[in-house]
Each structure stands twice: as structure tokens, then as C-alpha cells.
């Protein structure tokens, strides 16, 4: 009887553990959309996609959402790819260089680092939700999503000789959609979920509140006698740069003293809304600034990322290329964590001293140069 | 007898070993001790200060006894140099950290890094600068203005030499005798590459002071016109010297550890290129000064204030070594919009500004 009991408990524990794992990793599965096919504007090819559950690494709610707004799937694919590229670009010189793994459908692309709560995790969440906002907003204006279009509400008082009237990127829709799509996975009341929600929102705000005015002149001979103006999204590189800035200044937080006001005294507002606004973070050091809406938050301190770390699938900085003359984080000194580096010179054949000849070809010589490659020991 | 001998021999051996170790270690304890003059608080040289001051070698003591006023010059020079070093490196990872013992700069002097090169050059430059100024001011009995450039310079424009030029030659000679003394006494024991590196860098500091001499004129014609001018050569201010040396610090030459007669570059392809006294030399690579290391006297950059918007060495990215920064909001209460009210007081308002202060993680 007793053995049976303990077996039962173990079984329950196992199921619970498995389920916990599943819910944790489920959330990030949509990022594998980046690996599916080429995005195209053709909606008909996608109808097959979002109906077939085997292809879609999405949760039920996400799938519903995607079916409700046809055309978003390609925007999502695009967004996921943008996020991964941007993350890799921003961290190219750092010890943690945003490693991703191609695990087919349903696997976590960024690896186990998502289960942690450090600064890098915060950045990943922010950049992915920002990318969804960005690409959906852009896709709206391009006309590749059925249920949305340009944003014509963004009008400011017109100037003397120009007027509003252009097709603004629909950041509002992008923001809303990203909220519904990305945040659907953070269901718990756990501190980690709150952190993820905050960072997701921070990423979105960096896209939707940084719209810029763009104008086009179309008077006679292209003069600016007549102008049309519209609001357009910042380039995603800008968003990445800003988020990287916030990453550097991210604040380590604990749950605030005021606690969450989820059971607050605003019964009429929607449930979702409360979750976004009510959770209070307090910085670990009370002298530090409280995190704002655009700031990234984290609670775990990051490892040094020098050695191999199996708990986050990070291979360490062995064999990484480094810059021998720099004193920054990309310099061999810091990147190799003081282990030293190996220099190897190799020959490169390049085209050089090219001359344009009338008309119309370019003639080049072939030069051989020696280059030096430094890699960490 | 044999028994006795056997029992004595290990002891002798141990004693010899101890002596050897002491010889090895002792120079590093006296490194740059005269620099302590810069932080000590002597006001007027007393009779016994020369003999009792910690860390002066014999030659320095006798110089001090011969010319007690000059010690004040040395002290001023060292003080000026230390202050300048801290100013020049205020935004670098190594911010010219001082240690509390007699060696002033502590561990950094033990290795022949770029930082050490800078310290030696700026300190010897500081001594030249102060002693020269003391000469011109008439504080030293053994020297006076430089009058060698005075004669025969009467040109068409109507000006002539006649001013009291700063006697940089005397300053340089004094610095050579005083500052280099601590190196030459030690090099008797062994031809140490570090001694020669220090000597070279000392010379670089001195040469820079001489090189940056400026030409100054004063007009004293009728109504202050420049019909009649007096011109003289004067030292440039020490900030300029510090800046120039900082530039040299940015691109120093690494020298090979085994340089026989003359210093040789570590880079093999450039061995033939001679090293002039316009460049600083170093032997060891510098550490990155990112993490605190008490053993090596490195404080690390944790908690240092950084500049978020800059892209130089004080930027948060470089100074914090990629660890990121914390942000504090600082409330600054200042007096502002001050007005003079007749008569006679000044009325101010107090202004509050909120500033973001970033410190490294």
C-alpha cells in the first residue's frame, strides 16, 4: 500500500513537472516561425499553414488569433526572423552573442536561457515582442493583413503648405496584436511572468511610441509646394539600439512593497489591463531609479559567460574571434576572459584598384593580402 | 668537527637564501619612493628632513643637503604630477589610483606597464617644471633666469630679447640628478630592464617640458602699443604637458626584455628602428583593470560613475566592461538666478534639478 502511495505521488510529481516544463517552453515556441519557409504576401499559401497544427508551433489561443486576422502569419515569421537577426547583431561583440539553435518546429530557439531571469532573458523577450509589433504594424500599412489597414487617425494640425493624409504605419494595431499574441503565454502569477510581461511591454513601447513623421513632396518638379505627411515606424535597427541601451542600464528588481494591486478597487476595468499596470517592481538597491515603462527588468544576475554552461546551453567563448587592439568588450582581453588568444595569419585574394572604363565595364586587379585572425583559447 | 659543520651548513644555506630573497624583493619596496614627497606634508625644509625622509637614496640626500630649497621644488613637482595624473585618467578604467603607503602608487609600479611609463614620465616632468619655476621666481640660490638667449636678437620689428626666460636647462639637469638617482643606484646590482625603462621614460618627460617651451612677449610702447616688446621663453602650463604625455601614453612602444646596450622594440619586424626620446616605452602588458584584484592593487570599475552618452573611454560601455550600469536619480539643489541688489547683497533662488547618475555594475 505504502509503495503504491509513493509511486502515485511520484507519478503525480512527474506529470506536474512535465507539465510545468511544457508550459514554460510552450510560450516561446512561436519563435520557430522564423524557420518556416519564406514569407510572402500571398495569403492563399498561408491558409494551409495556419490550419495545419503540425506546422504551427502555436498555442490554441495564438492559432485562433492568427485565423481571426488572416495574413498575420507571414508578418509573424518576418518578425521572428528580425528579432533573431537583431539580437545577434546587437550582441555580436559580447561574450553572450545571442546563440540560437535550429531545432525544427516547436523547440525553443534561444535555448534554456529563457528559463532564467537575467538581463539577457529580458532583452530576448523585449526584442521579440517589439519585432512582432513592428512587423505587424508594417504589414497593416502594406495591406497584407485583411483585418487592418493604414492608420488614418494619426493626424496632427496641418502646416501651411502640407497636410496629413498619408498611410501611417498602424502601430496601434501592432501593439494590440502583439499584446494578445505574445503575452498570452505568460499566464502565471509568478514573479518571472511579471518580469516577462514587463519586458514584453517595454519592447512594444519602444516601437509604438517612437513613431516619426515622414513626408513626401509632390509639387511640380518634385518641389515641396504640396506635401503629404504620415507617421512611420522607426527602423528596427533603431529599436534594437535603444533596447540594447536599456539592456545596459537594466535594473535588478524585487517585488515592490505595494505589491500587486490585482485585487484592486477598479472592478470595471478589464482583467488584462489590470495585469499590465498594477504590478510594482522595486529596485534591489533602494537608491537606484525605479524601473520605468521602457526599462528592462531582471532578477537573476548574469553569469560571466566565460566558460561552458550547460544550464543555458552556452558553449563559452572558446574559439570566438576577437579584436586584438580593442580595449572594449570585443577586445581579446575581455572576450577571452584572460585565457589568451591564438593568432593565425591567412592569405586573402581580393579584387583591388578597380577602374571604371567607358563604356561600360570595371576592371580590377587581384591582390593577395595577409590578414590576421585572432581566436580565443 | 664534521658534525658541527654539518649542523651549521643548512643554517648558512638558509641565511644565504634569505639574503637572496631579500635582495630580490627589496628594490620593489623602494620603488619611486621620492614620489612620496608629493603627498607628504612638509612645509619648510628642516635640518634633518633630508636624512630622515623615507626612501631617498644617498645621492638624493646629498642633493637635498646641498640645496635644501630645491626639495620644496621637487615636492611641488611631484604633487603637481600626481594631481595631473589623476586629472588625465579620471575617465579611464585605471584612474591613477594612489595607495596609502610610501610608494604612493602602490602595486602598479611593480610591473613595467604603460601606466608605469606614464607615471615616471609625468613625475620627472613635474620636477623639471617646478624646479624651473622656482629658479625663475628666485627661490633657489643656485640658479637664476636663463640669459643665454638674450643677446643679439634685435630685429626689424622692433622687439628684443630681454625677458627672464625660464631656466629649463637647470630644471632638466636637476631632475636628471635627482629623479634618475633612484634608478642608477639600483642598476649597479643588475642591469635591470625595468631601470632602463624608467630612465627612458623619465627622459621623455623632461624632453617634453623642454619641447613645449613657449615664446612670450610683452608690449610696452607708448599707450601699450607693441612698438617696443620684450620677449622671453617660458614653460607652458602643466595641463598641456599632461595632455601631451597622455597622447604618448596612448601609443607607447613595447620593448624586448633582453635589450643589451640600447633598448630594442619587442616587435621583431621593427627591431632596427631606433627608439627616440619622444615615445614612452613599456615592458609588460597592462591588465584590463575591470575586476577588482586586491593582490595586484586593482580596484576594479564597479561603482564608478560613467557617461551614458559619450563614446570615449568614460562611456558606460567601455568603463563598465560590458557589465551594464545602474541608474540613480540624484536631486541637485543649487542656488540659481542670483541677482545683485543695491546695496550690497546678492539674492538667489534655490533650484532643484533631477539628474540621472549612472554607476557601473
Describe this structure in words.
- The complex is a heterodimer of chains A (377) and B (361).
- With 377 residues, chain A is an alpha/beta fold.
- Chain A has two domains: 24-316, no CATH class; 318-377, 2-Layer Sandwich (Endo-n-acetylneuraminidase fold).
- Helix content of chain A is 37%, strand content 15%.
- Chain A has ten helices and eight strands.
- Chain A has helices spanning 2-26, 43-51, 60-68, 72-90, 119-142, 171-182, 191-208, 236-248, 271-278, 332-335; strands at 162-164, 212-217, 227-232, 251-255, 281-283, 297-298, 341-357, 361-376.
- A three-stranded mixed β-sheet of chain A has the order 1-3-2, with no helix packed on it.
- In chain A, a hairpin with a 3-residue loop joins β7 (341-357) and β8.
- In chain A, α6 (171-182) packs antiparallel against α7.
- By secondary structure, chain B is α/β, with parallel strands linked by helices.
- Chain B has two domains: 30-146 and 164-212 and 236-300, no CATH class; 303-361, Wnt (Wingless and Int-1), C-terminal domain (Endo-n-acetylneuraminidase fold).
- Chain B is 38% helix and 15% strand.
- Chain B contains ten helices and eight strands.
- Chain B has helices spanning 2-29, 49-52, 58-66, 68-88, 114-137, 168-179, 181-184, 193-211, 238-250, 316-319; strands spanning 159-161, 214-219, 229-234, 253-254, 281-282, 305-306, 325-341, 345-360.
- Chain B has a three-stranded mixed β-sheet with strand order 1-3-2, with no helix packed on it. In chain B, strands 6-8-7 form a three-stranded antiparallel β-sheet, with no helix packed on it.
- In chain B, β7 (325-341) and β8 form a beta hairpin.
- The chains are: A alpha/beta (377), B alpha/beta (361).
- Chain A binds chain B through residues 94-95, 119, 245, 247-251, 283, 285, 287-289, 327-329, 331, 333-334, and chain B through 93, 288, 290, 308, 313, 316-318, 320-322, 324-329, 356, 358.
Amino acid at each position: 500500500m505504502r509503495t503504491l502511495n509513493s509511486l502515485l505521488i511520484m507519478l503525480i510529481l512527474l506529470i506536474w513537472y512535465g507539465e510545468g516544463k511544457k508550459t514554460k517552453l510552450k510560450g516561446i515556441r512561436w519563435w520557430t516561425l522564423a524557420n518556416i519557409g519564406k514569407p510572402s504576401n500571398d495569403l492563399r499559401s498561408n491558409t494551409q499553414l495556419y490550419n495545419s497544427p503540425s506546422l504551427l508551433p502555436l498555442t490554441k489561443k495564438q492559432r485562433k488569433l492568427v485565423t481571426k486576422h488572416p495574413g498575420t502569419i507571414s508578418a509573424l515569421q518576418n518578425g521572428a526572423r528580425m528579432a533573431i537577426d537583431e539580437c545577434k547583431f546587437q550582441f555580436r561583440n559580447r561574450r553572450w552573442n545571442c546563440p540560437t539553435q535550429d531545432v525544427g518546429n516547436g523547440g525553443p530557439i534561444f535555448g534554456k536561457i529563457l528559463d532564467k531571469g537575467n538581463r539577457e532573458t529580458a532583452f530576448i523577450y523585449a526584442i521579440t515582442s517589439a519585432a512582432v509589433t513592428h512587423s505587424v504594424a508594417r504589414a497593416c500599412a502594406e495591406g497584407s493583413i485583411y483585418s487592418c489597414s493604414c492608420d488614418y487617425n494619426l493626424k496632427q494640425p496641418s502646416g501651411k503648405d502640407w497636410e496629413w493624409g498619408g498611410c501611417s504605419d498602424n502601430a496601434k494595431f501592432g501593439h494590440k496584436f502583439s499584446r494578445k499574441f505574445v503575452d498570452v503565454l505568460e499566464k502565471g502569477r509568478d514573479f518571472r511572468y511579471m518580469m516577462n510581461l514587463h519586458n514584453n511591454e517595454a519592447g512594444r513601447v519602444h516601437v509604438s511610441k517612437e513613431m516619426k513623421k515622414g513626408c513626401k513632396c509632390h509639387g511640380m518638379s518634385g518641389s515641396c509646394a504640396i506635401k503629404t505627411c504620415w507617421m512611420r515606424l522607426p527602423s528596427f535597427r533603431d529599436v534594437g539600439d535603444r533596447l540594447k541601451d536599456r539592456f545596459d542600464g537594466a535594473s535588478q528588481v524585487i517585488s515592490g512593497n505595494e505589491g500587486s494591486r490585482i485585487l484592486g478597487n477598479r472592478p470595471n476595468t478589464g482583467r488584462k489591463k489590470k495585469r499590465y499596470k498594477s504590478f510594482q517592481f522595486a529596485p534591489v538597491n533602494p537608491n537606484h531609479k525605479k524601473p520605468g515603462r521602457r526599462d528592462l527588468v531582471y532578477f537573476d544576475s548574469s553569469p560571466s559567460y566565460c566558460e561552458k554552461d550547460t544550464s543555458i546551453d552556452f558553449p563559452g567563448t572558446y574559439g570566438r574571434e576577437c579584436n586584438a587592439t580593442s580595449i572594449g568588450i570585443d577586445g581579446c582581453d575581455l572576450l577571452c576572459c584572460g585565457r589568451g588568444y591564438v593568432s593565425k595569419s591567412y592569405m586573402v585574394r581580393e579584387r583591388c584598384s578597380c577602374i571604371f572604363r567607358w563604356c561600360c565595364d570595371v576592371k580590377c586587379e587581384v591582390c593577395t593580402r595577409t590578414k590576421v585572425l585572432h581566436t580565443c583559447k | 668537527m664534521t658534525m658541527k659543520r654539518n649542523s651549521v651548513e643548512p643554517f648558512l644555506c638558509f641565511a644565504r637564501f634569505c639574503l637572496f630573497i631579500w635582495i630580490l624583493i627589496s628594490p620593489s619596496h623602494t620603488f619611486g619612493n621620492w614620489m612620496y614627497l608629493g603627498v607628504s606634508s612638509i612645509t619648510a625644509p628642516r635640518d634633518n628632513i633630508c636624512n630622515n625622509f623615507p626612501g631617498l637614496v644617498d645621492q638624493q640626500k646629498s642633493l637635498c643637503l646641498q640645496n635644501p630649497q630645491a626639495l620644496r621644488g621637487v615636492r611641488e613637482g611631484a604633487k603637481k604630477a600626481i594631481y595631473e595624473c589623476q586629472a588625465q585618467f579620471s575617465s579611464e578604467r585605471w584612474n591613477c589610483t594612489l595607495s596609502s603607503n610610501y610608494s604612493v602608487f602602490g602595486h602598479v609600479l611593480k610591473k613595467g606597464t604603460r601606466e608605469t611609463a606614464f607615471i615616471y614620465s609625468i613625475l620627472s616632468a613635474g620636477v623639471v617644471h617646478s624646479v624651473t619655476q622656482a629658479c625663475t621666481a628666485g627661490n633657489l640660490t643656485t640658479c637664476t633666469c636663463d640669459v643665454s638667449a638674450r643677446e643679439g636678437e634685435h630685429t626689424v620689428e622692433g622687439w628684443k630679447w630681454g625677458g627672464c626666460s625660464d631656466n629649463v636647462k637647470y630644471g632638466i639637469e636637476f631632475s636628471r640628478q635627482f629623479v634618475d638617482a633612484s634608478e642608477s643606484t639600483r642598476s649597479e646590482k643588475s642591469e635591470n630592464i625595468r631601470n632602463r625603462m624608467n630612465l627612458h621614460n623619465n627622459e621623455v618627460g623632461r624632453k617634453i617640458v623642454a619641447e613645449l617651451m613657449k615664446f612670450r612677449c610683452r608690449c610696452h610702447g607708448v599707450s601699450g602699443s607693441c612698438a617696443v616688446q620684450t620677449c622671453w621663453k617660458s614653460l607652458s602650463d602643466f595641463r598641456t604637458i599632461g595632455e601631451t604625455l597622455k597622447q604618448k601614453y596612448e601609443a607607447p612602444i613595447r620593448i624586448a626584455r633582453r635589450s643589451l646596450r640600447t633598448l630594442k622594440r619587442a616587435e621583431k619586424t621593427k627591431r632596427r628602428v631606433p627608439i627616440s626620446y619622444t615615445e614612452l616605452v613599456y615592458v609588460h602588458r597592462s591588465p584590463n583593470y575591470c575586476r577588482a584584484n586586491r593582490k595586484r592593487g586593482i580596484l576594479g570599475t564597479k561603482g564608478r560613475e560613467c557617461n551614458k552618452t559619450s563614446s570615449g573611454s568614460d562611456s558606460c560601455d567601455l568603463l563598465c566592461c560590458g557589465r551594464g550600469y545602474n541608474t540613480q536619480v540624484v536631486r541637485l539643489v543649487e542656488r540659481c538666478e542670483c541677482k545683485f541688489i543695491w546695496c550690497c547683497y546678492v539674492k538667489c533662488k534655490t533650484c532643484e534639478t533631477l539628474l540621472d547618475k549612472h554607476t557601473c555594475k
